[in-house]
Amino acid sequence: MGIIKSDKLTYEYIIRDEEGNVDSIKKAVDEVSINVESGQFIAILGHNGSGKSTFAKHINAILTPSEGTMWVDGKDSSDYDNTWDIRQTAGMVFQNPDNQIISPVVEEDIGFGPENLGVKTEEIWERVNNALESVKMTKYRSKSPNRLSGGQKQRVAIAGVLAMEPKCIVLDEPTAMLDPNGRKDVIKTITELNKSKNVTIILITHYMEEVVNADKIFVIDEGKVVMEGSPREIFSQVERLKELRLDVPQVTLLAHELKKAGLPVPLGILTKEELEDAICQLF
Amino acid sequence: MIRDITIGQYYQGDSILHKLDPRVKIIGTIIFFIDIFIINNICGYALMALFLAMEIKISKVPFSFIVKGLKSVIIIMLFALAFNLFLTQGTVVFSFGILKISKEGIRMAVQMLFRLIYLILGSSLMTLTTTPNDLTDGLERVMAPLKLLKVPVHEIAMMMAIALRFIPILIEETDKIMKAQLARGADFESGSIIKKAKAMVPVLVPLFISAFRRANDLAMAMEARCYRGGEGRSKMKPLKYKGFDFTAYFIAIIMLVIAIFSKRFNLPFENF
Predict the structure, then answer these.
(1) Among A23, A53, A87, B44, which is disulfide-ready with A17 (CB 3.0 to 4.6 Å)?
(2) Which chain A positions have a beta carbon within 8 Å of B169's beta carbon?
(3) What superfamily does domain A4-231 belong to in CATH?
């Protein structure tokens, strides 16, 4: 069993009308079964309202399944006694950087998690220093978060999770509110964490460019996993992705159009370099 | 207008006053408040003025900065002055129609004025030399005995810390909403006070909605980082007393003793 495993996980929202009667029941997550091995970089894709964020909240035990089971590091999230262990194992970074920073000073915010865990003072400082170093924010340690850019705030949020020494970090659309530079910084930071510290990353996003380096991609639509596989496998099915109202990386799209126009380019091209090579080989 | 209020603001510096433990500053300020309400003669007030002046000198906070705090409460001070002046019973000195000013009234009014000024100067000096974090940390520790009375001390301190973090964000948001409304023809400037107040309603409604949304997000983010109340939490920056903190306590106690004994040094002309 992997670090994160879900079995037929279902989550239902009850929609009520104005008098509070049950109007209908919507399955936000519908029988999702996935298995993530330790150290993997996983991406979950889906358009708005596909249920990907709802699924992500299950990994951190913020939500518990209506039906089915979620195991995080072998612990069942439905059991309340496991909640705090699970939250320590799987840290979570949210979309809005402003709404997840608690303290008015950067370093104190990073210390917030370890403080909650009851870690000793000297060790908190050590963890904070390491976390700041990992996200390259040591320079800004005594600044107010209000003075930082979006990308920097999001890196502080990642450091805040890192200081709890989790085995896995779930990032719920961490780049949705950032400018392109901030977006690049955040993705670079998490890729490095995955490589150097072997932290399992689960990245939820709808920016396709961010997931080309992932080990595995899950595509969720209307609460169901509709596609899964390596980035190459997923992005070779351009037509299918369009049906699911998802974009493909520009390069992949270009390669796809070239192929449609009759050029023998291989399927599932992910980077500019690959496309360059492929085109060069034609002549 | 919001920027004029110095109470609760921090003035960066590295004086001894800045370095004092926040608990000392909070308890010291409370003792100072007791002092100024015990004292009832000129001698005592002069002594307190001297003491305050010395503290301000040590703190290196510019005097003009501290006085700014007085400006924002000038109306309250005038009210207190008027009430004491006209409503205290006693030997009448002047009278205009129904308004009578008594000897005791003048005395009370002057005393109240001094007390209020000292109160505000003293508390601004404390907040100006203490970072908001130290202040909430200090308050949490000073109020700790109240836990026995089931007062949620940790929660109150946490709420204050979060409020301090979100004040600038919400001010920025108010600005954004106002600009958005201005762009669509809203008018916040002209008209009577009532009209201006009514114009604020369309600003406040979205502001409240967004504040609730932020609160919801923040609560989730805090839970995700294993926050479960004050129980079993450790401290990244625990408060520790240093040598000069005890000196400061000692000075505060001496001031209290002086305040109690100052009653005996009534100058003859004060008993007019």
Answers:
(1) A23
(2) 98, 146
(3) P-loop containing nucleotide triphosphate hydrolases (3.40.50.300)
